[in-house]
Amino acid sequence: MHDGSLGGVLRLIREGRALTRTDVMDVTGLSRSTVMQRLGVLLEAGLLVEQPEAGPSSGGRRPAALTFNERVGVVLAADLGAEHGRLAIYDLAGVVLAEGNAPLRIADGPDVVLEWVEQRFDELLVEAERAREDVLATAIGVPGPVEDGRPAKPPIMPGWDDYPVAERLSERFGAPALVERDVNAMALGEHRHHWPEIANLVFVKVATGIGAGIITGGELMRGNHGRAGDIGHIRASRESDELCTCGNRGCVAVLASGSAMVRQLHDAGIDVATTADVAALVRAGDPVATHHAREAGRVLGAALAAVVSVVAPSLIIVGGEMGDASEPVIAGIREGVYQQASTLATRHLRVLGTRFAERVGVVGVATLALEHVLDPANVDALLARRGIAA
Amino acid sequence: MHDGSLGGVLRLIREGRALTRTDVMDVTGLSRSTVMQRLGVLLEAGLLVEQPEAGPSSGGRRPAALTFNERVGVVLAADLGAEHGRLAIYDLAGVVLAEGNAPLRIADGPDVVLEWVEQRFDELLVEAERAREDVLATAIGVPGPVEDGRPAKPPIMPGWDDYPVAERLSERFGAPALVERDVNAMALGEHRHHWPEIANLVFVKVATGIGAGIITGGELMRGNHGRAGDIGHIRASRESDELCTCGNRGCVAVLASGSAMVRQLHDAGIDVATTADVAALVRAGDPVATHHAREAGRVLGAALAAVVSVVAPSLIIVGGEMGDASEPVIAGIREGVYQQASTLATRHLRVLGTRFAERVGVVGVATLALEHVLDPANVDALLARRGIAA
To answer: Does domain B195-357 have CATH number 3.40.630.30?
Structure first.
C-alpha cells in the first residue's frame, strides 16, 4: 500500500506516478474526501498546479492533470573550501538560477565568512529575481567534520569549532539550514547524479587538504562526530620525518596534499604560494610539478588501498583543486591502489576524475538541500513556509 | 500514522504498544472491520494468542489481552569457522532451546560441511522437541565474503566459491535461509544486544584468519561483492618479506593472524599445530606465546588505525579464537591504534573484548535470522509457512 500522507501524495505526483485525482485514489486506496482534502492543501500552498491535459480528447471532458510546481521555491547552496567559495541558487527541478564564486579565507573565521556568504546569497536572489520568502532551504559545505550543524574540531578552520552555522543560516533565511562536510556532499552529488546504480563509492578531494566522502549501501557514511573519511591522517610512511598538523609524522596529508606540494616545489626552488599555483603548473606541463603530483598520487593511492580493503567500493572518484587539475595525480593514485591492494579487492574497481570539475561541491550541497525539501516527511515545514497549516 | 499492514499490526502487539483490539484501532486509525480481519488472520496462524488480563477488574468485562506467541516457531543458526562449527536453535524470544559445537574443516568443501550442518540441525530439533515444520528461518555464518547467499571468492574456503548455500538450506528446511560473512553477523549481534546506542562500531575477529564486521549508522556495511571489512590484506609492513595467500607481502593476515602465530611459534621451536594451541599457550601464560600475541596485536592495531580514520567508530570489539583468549592481543591493539591514529580520531574510542566469548558468531547469525522473521515485511512468508494466506 502506498504512503497516503500529505508528503506521500505530493511525491506520487512529483514522480509522475499519479496525474489525476482518480490516480491518487487508485494508488493510495484513500477515500475521495481524503484525497480532495490532501490535494486542496497542496494546491493552496502552490506546491501543485492544475492544467488541462494537452492532446486530442477521446470524448468527454478530460480531467485536469496535476503537476508539481518546481518554481514554488528555491534552495541556496554554498561550497566553502580553505581558499575559495562557490554559491548558487537552484529551483526545485535542480536548475541553476544564479551562481558565482570568489576567493575567501576560511581561516578568517565564521563571522567574516558567513557574513560574506549571506550577502552573496542576497545578491544571487536579486539576480535570480527571487525573494527571501522563496527560500525553502539553505545548505553549506565546509572543509572539516560537522556534527549537528556545527563544525566539530575542524583542523583547518580556526575559530569555527562548535560555531552554530546551521542556526545562524536558518535564522537569517527563515528556512531549514543543512551543514555538511564538503567531501560528503561531493560524494552524494556524484552518486545521485552520475552513479545511482553503484552502492559503494569513495570521493577523494585532493586540495589544500585531503579528505574522502564515502557512500556505502547507497547512503552517506558519517561516523562518530562526523569524522568518517578523514583519510588525511592515515599513516602513509613510517620513514618520513615530516610533521603533520595532527601532531603525527608521515600522514598522507603532510606528504600528498596541495599544501605539501607547495612546500615540495618551494624546496625545489620553484616560486609557488598556493595549491592553485601548483595546479596551474601541473596543467601547464611543468616537469617538476608533474613529478610531485604523480608522487603525491602514489602516496595517496597506497593509503586508498586501505580504504578499499575497509569499504570495498567499486568506484573511486577524484576531485578537488589538485585532483581536478591533474591527470598525474589520478595516474599516481591508480598505481598506488593497484599495487598495494589485494587482487580480489581491485578486480572490479575503477578510479576516475569527477565529471563536475570545480562545481562538484556546490552540486553536492544543492543535492542535499533538494533531497531535504522534497522528502515527504518534511512537507509540513514546506507548507508552514508557505503560510499554510497541514 | 502507524503502519496498518498485517506486519505492522503484528509488530505493534509484539512490542507491547497495543494490547487489545481497541488499542490497535486507536494506534493505527484502521476501521473496526479491518482490525478484526487482521487479528483474525494472526490468531489463526498462531502468531498471536489471547489471554484474559490478570489482576483485579475495575468493573465490566476486561477485554482479552493479545500477546505475541514466541513459541510459534524457531530459527536455526550455525557459525562456521575455518576449524570449528557452533550450532543452535532459538525461539522467537531469542531463547536458546538447544546448542552444540564441534571441530570441522571448512576446507572439506560445502558438500561435506553442509551435510554435517544439516544433520546436526536435525539432531538439535529432536533435542529441543521441535519439528522441521517449526523452522521459520535458518542462518549460517561463514569465514569469507558472501554475495546473494553464496560465498564469493572466499580465500580460505576452497570449493565454496559460488556454491548455492542459501538455496540448499532453504530447500532442506523449507524456510528462508540467510548466509552472512561471519564477522558481519558478529558485529550485528554485538550491536543489537550490547551496544544499540552506538551508531558506529567495528568487530575484529582474530582467529586462523583476520576480518572485521563494520556497523555504520546503525547498519551493517557490506561493500561491493560483500568484501567490506576485509582488513587482513591491509599492508602492515613495507619491510616484511612474508608472502600472503593473496600474493602480496606484508599483509596484516600474514603477520598477525592465528596461522601467522602458529608459524612464528613453530620457528621459535615451540610445538604448535593450530590457532587453538597458540591460544591455549597464551592463556597459560607462556612468555614466548604472549610476546608474539602482543606483537600481533600491535601490527593489527596499526592497521586498525587506518580503519578508524575511514569509519570513525567509537568502539572496537575484539573477538575470535585468539582475540578472545588473549588480553595481550587486545593490549597490543590498543597500543597500535592509539600510537598510529590521530588524537582527534581516538579521543572517544574504546577497544574492548567481546562479551559473548566464543558464542559471538552463533548469537550473531541467530540475530540475523530473528530480525528477518520478525520484519513486518516478511509476515506473508511467515503465514505461508503456517499454511495460511494473508
So the answer is: no
